[in-house]
Each structure stands twice: as structure tokens, then as C-alpha cells.
Amino acid sequence: MNKIHSKIHFLRFKSIGMKLFVIMFCAIVGLSTILGLSSYQLSKGIIKDEVSLASLQAIVQAADKLDFLFLQYESLSKQLAVDSELKRNLESIDQAEIGTLQRHNSEEKVRSKLSSISGSDSRLLGVRLVKESLVEVDSYKSSGIPGVRTDDDIQAKMKEIEDAKGKIVWFPTSKKGFFNSYAEPALTMGRLLRNMNHPEAEYILLFEIKEKSITEMLANLQIGVSGQVEVITDSNRIVHAKDNNLLESQSFIHINKESAGGETTFTADDEEGIEQLVVYKTLKTTKWTMMGYAPISDFVKGTNQLLYVTLIVILLAVIFALFIGYYVFLNVGRPLAKLCNLMEEGEQGNLQVRTTFQSEDEIGRLGSSFNQMMHQIGMLVDQTNRSAQEVLETADELTQVSKSTSLSAGEIADASREIAVGASNLAMEAESESVLAEHIAEKIHKVSTSNYAMEQSAHRVLQVSGQGSDYMDQLVHKTDVIVDMNRTIVSQAEGLKKSTASIQKILELMSNLTQQTNILSMNATIEAARAGEAGRGFMVVANEIRNLADSSKQSIQTVAEITDEIRRGIEHTTASLNAVSPVLAEQMVSVKEASTMFQNVKQQMDEFLTEIDNSSIAVKELIESQQLLSVSISSISAVVEETSASTEEVASMSSQQYVVSEQLVGLSSRLEEMSETFKHVLVKFKT
């Protein structure tokens, strides 16, 4: 039965076995599938790239061959364009003055040359020289080819060649040739053989090339198994294809060289929607495009085997994943399911269940831990049973004690209420005495405040008196200094006055010296005048001396005036200082008297401050006594309040104790009931 239950549990998606199975199955199968399909796609891409490269190389080689073929005919046309003999024959044909025989010989030479070119190259259908009028008589061709047509299509092509002005023009393959006169397709190259000296002798040279020659040249070119090779124009017209029925039609593959960005390989769908791998190369001569394409399925057939191998690997991965899932079920899922069943039995009360796991892995360790856990739970249940019995007995004793405690608490609560009433009355008396003490303290505080204010005022007056006395001392000192300075200035002024007198004497001497210098210069001038030409230089010196003497005289006069002004200023200053001296003496006396008055004020304020200090000491002693009284009253009030509060608290606690005792009695009864219930619950566990 347990095995069936474990299998059913394993089949549930919520089971750990099923989850592990799904995870491992998805991981193995998913990884195998991803690796297989990635390998398939990678191989397919590599093969596609290699085939594209090989096909492109083949197309490039074929395009080079075709370019080489076209270049041969272009070179041949250039040789004919510069062939002097051909040019002379064409010019002679158009000359009216030559005879019929000569014209016939020239025409035969032209036809012979064209026939020799056509006969030596089996790939040519024919070579023509056509006049603009397209009249048969003006057309020269190699032997064995029909004449020309003159419809609008031919006219347009001829006009295109003429407009090219001697450049080569290639025309796509036509099913019946350029003039629609052949039984097989042909492509045509044309150019105008210009003649600048004789424009009437200009002819259009046409090389008509067999289309099958291109087919033979490209016979070995194969793209894939069922691939096709085509040569198309820029307008997507088919120039060459294996099937001649496709000639002159539009190719289903469009090549946009501008949007290709230099890539020469791409994929496109054909008319039936089959994906084709396309490679192309542009011809250098005609600017046509050689294109090869083949179904991609032709190249990736080999990769189908890899796909089959991938599918086989995925199938083997599924089988391997199923085997691994079954192994996980046997070694992980089934033991866990069995352990879940045992735990459910333990949940129902059977504590004797045990696991039988013998392995040494995590499952075995889990089973061993489960057995130890169930053993510990069994021991815990036994111990709980014993504890429940002890709790039941204790609950009975607690019920009896709670009842007696409840009675005692009621009596204590009544006595506490009576004590609380007496304490309240005592607290009211202490509160009234405290109010009276606070009133006395308020009055004493006012006296102390006034006394303190007087003390501060006295200190300020004393301080101001001291400062005034100091200021007066400084003023006396400064006044003495001023008197001394006044005396010094007076003495210095007297000295300056004497110096100005000395300066005046010196100036008188210098004035006399200047007068004598003038006299000497005049004498020198007279002597120089007597000397004539010999004394002219001395006369100049005498004039300069006289000028210098005049300048010195003016300077001495100026200095004399300045010295006289200085003398008058000194005399005025001396008079002013002499007038100030009595005033300074009086000020000195007044300052000394004011200093004496400040010293007396300071002495009286010192005595007043001493009296205030004595009064402050007495007030402080009174405040200390009042504070002691207040502290005593506060202590008494606090004790009374504390006693009252304690009494009320005791009464409240007694009431609470009574209530708690009642609750304790109820809890004891409830504990007894819970013990009985717990005992009945533990009975269902089997140990």
C-alpha cells in the first residue's frame, strides 16, 4: 500500500521526484536538441558559404573567358577600322569618276576580306559592312549570309551605332539574328568605321556571333545539380541561357547592384517560390551580367543526414532522460515520499515510526536524523506528562494559598485607608505653615534686594570718586607739564630773538660786502675800457660779477625781510605765553582744590559702604534663619505627604493585592482545568 501511495505521490507535479525528473528531462533533451539543431544550421550555413564561394569563382572564370572572346572581336574591329587597304577600297567604291570594273574589283576585295574573317572563325555567322541607307547594293557581307531588312527596329539599332561615333556597341542575342534573317540565335557587335576625309565612305561594321558558341564555351560551367547560367542586360533581358526559348525574355531574378553594397551573392525565389542561391559577375566589355543560380536544396542535401543524426541523438537523449528520471525516482523521490508518509503518521500521534534507509548519502542522513527526532519527541512527551501531573498538584496547593491571601489583603486595605485619612489632615496643617514661612521669606528677600542695590550704588559712587581723584591727579600732572613747557617755549623764544639779531648783523656785513663788490666791478669795467680790445674779456667778467652782486643784494634784502617777520612772530608768541602763565597758575590752584574734594568724597563713601556691609551681613543671617525654618517646614510637609502617599499607595496596593488574590484564585482553577486537558491530549501519543 505504501509503494502504491509513493508512486501516486511521485506522479504529482508538486512532488520533488517529479520536479527533478522534469528538470533533468528538459535539460538533457533541450540541450541535445539545441546542440543538434545548432550543428545542423551551422553546417548548412558553412556548406552554403563554401558553395557560394566556389560558384562565384566558377562564374568569375566564365565571365573572364567571355570577356576575352568579346575583346577578340573588339580588337578585330579596331584592326578593320585602321586597315588602310579596306579604307581605300571603300573610298573608291563611292567615287563617281571611277569605272565599273574598278568599282567591281574594289567591292570584291571588300567581300573577300569579310569572307576571310568569317571563314576563319566558326563562331561567326557573318561580317557585314552596311551603309546608312541600308540598300542592298550598299551592303557588303561575307559569303553565305542573307541580305538586310529595313524595318524600324533595324533603323533604331543602326542609329544607335551612328550616335556612338566609332565606339563599340553590343546588342543582346536575337533568336534570328540582328536582321532576323538566320535560323539560329546570334548576338551582334557593331561600330562605325569613320572616315574624316571622306564621310561618304563611312560604313557600319557588324559582327554577328553564334549564340551556341557561348553555350559551348560555358558547357562545363555547372551551378549545383539543377542550376542555370544566364547572361542578362541591365534591363534584365536574357542574352544567354541553356534554353533558347528564354532568349529575349525577362529573367525572374532581378539584380540591384546599387543596393547590393558590393556583394555578388544573394538568395531569391523563383516563379514557384523555391529559394535560389544566386551568384553573378559583371562583364568588363559589354557591362552585361553573367549570373548563375540553383536551388539551395541542391547544396544542403548532405546536411539532411546530419538532421537525421540529430533526430536520432534527440531520441536517445529522451530515452536517457527517462532512465535518469527513473533512477532519480528510485533514489530520491521514493525515499522522500516514504519519509513524508512516516511524518504524516507521526502527525497523527504515532511516535514509534522509524525509517529503514541504509544509504550513506543525504537521504540516509535525513532518515537517521528523522529517527533521532522522533526519539527525542517521544522523550519530550513522557517528560511533559510527568510535568503536567506535577502542575496539577501544584495548582491545588496554589488555590488554597490564594484564598487565604485574599482574606488577609482585605483586612490590610481597610487599616491602610484609616492611616491615609490622618496623614492627609497633618499634611494640610504643614501646608499652611509653609505658606506663612514663604511670606516672611518674601519680605526678607525684598529687604536684601534693597540693601544689595544700595551696596551696588555705593560701590559705583566709590568707583566714580576714585576715577575722579585719579583724573584730577592726572590733570595736576598735565598742568605741571604744560607750565614747564610754557617756560621752555618762552626761553626758546628769547633764544630765537637773539639769533635773529645775529642774523641781521650778518646780513649787514653781507650788504656791505655786496656794495664793495659793486665798486670793484665798476673799477674793473673802467680798467677794461681803458685796455680796449685786450680788456674785453675782463669786462665780461666784471659785468658778471656786478650781476652777481646785484642778485646777492636782492637775496640779502629778501632774507632780511623774512628774518624781520620771524622776529615779530617770536615777539608776539613771547607776549602770548607771558599772558597765559598767570591763567595756568590759577588753573593749577583750582585743579588741586578739586582733587582734595574728590578725596574727601571717596573717604565718606568708604565709611558709608562699611555701614552697608554691616547691614548686609545682618540681612544674610536673617535669610539663613528663615531658610532653615522653611527647610524644616518643607521637611515636615514632605514627610507628611510621603507618609500620606505611602499610606494611599499601601491602601491601593492592598486593594490591588486583594484583586490579584481573587484573580489568582481564578487562575489556579483555570490552571487545574488546563492540566486535565493537557493530560488528555498527551494520552494519544504512543511512546
Automatic annotation (TrEMBL):
<feature type="domain" description="HAMP">
    <location>
        <begin position="330"/>
        <end position="382"/>
    </location>
</feature>
<protein>
    <submittedName>
        <fullName>Methyl-accepting chemotaxis protein</fullName>
    </submittedName>
</protein>
<dbReference type="InterPro" id="IPR003660">
    <property type="entry name" value="HAMP_dom"/>
</dbReference>
<keyword id="KW-1003">Cell membrane</keyword>
<dbReference type="Pfam" id="PF00015">
    <property type="entry name" value="MCPsignal"/>
</dbReference>
<keyword id="KW-0812">Transmembrane</keyword>
<keyword id="KW-1133">Transmembrane helix</keyword>
<dbReference type="Pfam" id="PF00672">
    <property type="entry name" value="HAMP"/>
</dbReference>
<keyword id="KW-0807">Transducer</keyword>
<feature type="transmembrane region" description="Helical">
    <location>
        <begin position="306"/>
        <end position="329"/>
    </location>
</feature>
<feature type="transmembrane region" description="Helical">
    <location>
        <begin position="20"/>
        <end position="40"/>
    </location>
</feature>
<comment type="similarity">
    <text>Belongs to the methyl-accepting chemotaxis (MCP) protein family.</text>
</comment>
<keyword id="KW-0472">Membrane</keyword>
<feature type="domain" description="Methyl-accepting transducer">
    <location>
        <begin position="401"/>
        <end position="651"/>
    </location>
</feature>
<dbReference type="InterPro" id="IPR004089">
    <property type="entry name" value="MCPsignal_dom"/>
</dbReference>
